[in-house]
């Protein structure tokens, strides 16, 4: 039994104190897990664009500081609260920002992964058990002593810390022999992209696909489409350097909108005799979404929204445009039900059905987390992996 079980743990975390303010690595207190909660020692974490979006505070309603961001990680269970049966101390786990209680009406149906109790909620900042936080400060952001202040949770997970507390519905046990660094990617980016291709669009062999935005999420869509035998995968990005990476994930053609004198969808329709079978919007830009929608073939084309749209603007479509027979739908966490489906997806990745290594473009120590944010902001990384804890496998 862990020596720390039932006790408050004092450890280091990267705390966000305000929009666009550099994260502060400081000492914090992490309370023990309550009923149906799990305390996890984080081994590796990586940064997704959704962390960046929340940190910049672009959507004012979602702002909550001080806060511990981060939702892509892999860790080991330190202790569990009362009632937790499916994981125990020492298990290797990944956090799931979109949880699965297993008992609600949605969890019992196959069609949706949006659990009624633990689906992703960008507004949520407190634990459901008692409406409190499990994190608190020991020092102020300048390192001086201050009265303890609560630190908010983020996206059911909060992984930029040595220890975090999650609802057990948001903890997925993985094979202890899995390559741990790569498992961090399954917490969000790769599962989201591959799942959008496999579960939401259901990409079929010999079909054509366009992916808008070649970050980790978009390239995971490409990798998923490649694995399903798509014959042509057109990548669209304003950053030309993304094409080199994209080739490894099966991107066959590249379009930089800056090089065109016509809308991207016209170019795609020219290249594909009227449009692609599937398009995926992975930039979070509403104007790009319109291009993605119009780039599919009339009659059967299908567009999947994956990006997060901070803007108050609504869908950029005239209702009559839907009479052309193009479909449009959204995808959260790639449609995966985390607890019931991620372990087998992880196995498929370990067998090489989906290649994970190319997504880790940088590795840095935890202290350099602000540099890792900058790499993503500058379009210079796909995923930068941060090592948080040193550990030895038993
Ligand atoms: P990223 O920053 O690594 O990649 C975004 C890419 O889009 C970059 O390569 C950038 O150059 C490109 N881009 C941006 N604006 C563009 C434009 N106007 N035209 C062409 N290219 C453009 O981000 P990521 O981590 O891959 O995440 C992608 C999106 O997916 C984000 O909006 C993120 O919040 C969202 N997301 C959604 C889910 C979900 O469950 N639906 C999960 C994870 C991430
Ligand atoms: Zn994410
Ligand atoms: Zn549920």
From TrEMBL:
Which keywords, in A-to-Z order, does the entry hold? Metal-binding, NAD, Oxidoreductase, Zinc
Q: Which domain of life is it from?
A: Eukaryota
Q: Does the keyword Oxidoreductase apply?
A: yes
Q: What EC number is given for this enzyme?
A: 1.1.1.1
What cofactor does this chain's UniProt record say it requires? Zn(2+)
Per the UniProt record, one Pfam family is ADH_N
Is this entry keyworded Translocase?
no
| InterPro entries found in the cross-reference section | ADH-like_C, ADH-like_N, ADH_Zn_CS, GroES-like_sf, NAD(P)-bd_dom_sf
Q: Domain Alcohol dehydrogenase-like N-terminal: where?
A: 35-174
Q: Which residue ranges does the record assign to the Alcohol dehydrogenase-like C-terminal domain?
A: 217-339
Catalysis: reaction(s) = a primary alcohol + NAD(+) = an aldehyde + NADH + H(+); a secondary alcohol + NAD(+) = a ketone + NADH + H(+)
Output the Gene Ontology terms for molecular function.
alcohol dehydrogenase (NAD+) activity; zinc ion binding
Binding partners and assembly: Homodimer.
Q: Which protein family is it in? A: Belongs to the zinc-containing alcohol dehydrogenase family. Class-III subfamily.
Name of the protein described by the UniProt record: alcohol dehydrogenase
